[in-house]
Amino acid sequence: MANQRLVTLTWIFTEKFGLIFLSMITFVVYARLLSPEELGVGTVIIAIVEVIGILYSSILEDPLVRQEHLDDRHISTAFWVAVLASLVSILMITCVAWLCLTSNALRWMTAVASVKILFTMMARVYVVQMRRTSNFRMLASRTLLGKVFGGVAGIAVALGGWVRGR
Length: 166
Prior knowledge:
Blueprint: H1 2-33, H2 36-66, H3 72-100, H4 104-132, H5 136-160
Helix pairs in contact: 1-5, 2-3, 2-4, 3-4
């Protein structure tokens, strides 16, 4: 039993510190590729999207993990509510960006970045299932793999000059 707890803690530790490490690497690369203004604007956009995603995730994920009995109807309902809330949020963020921002590049950056909310929320149901079954190895692996793909995509955007509209 103690051995299982140690393995679980090791995977949780690996996930948390792996995410921090990957974030540091990608931000160092962004700092080298982008101007200070572009990096600052991108960071603000990412922060806004992340805050909304974290808010939704905490509302959805923790109650489902704590649920004594979770059946397919609960999972299906949670998934589709998450998708609907994400799509509404994307629409609202995009509309606010179009109304408040003067730069078309910033408008598009904000709209594209807001799509992360959808992917985050769609994954929450699977995260719940992995947490409930204590499958922290798979959870850590998938989370880190997603962070790698996201970092590579962001770096490709910066390298391609799409941030500057080249």
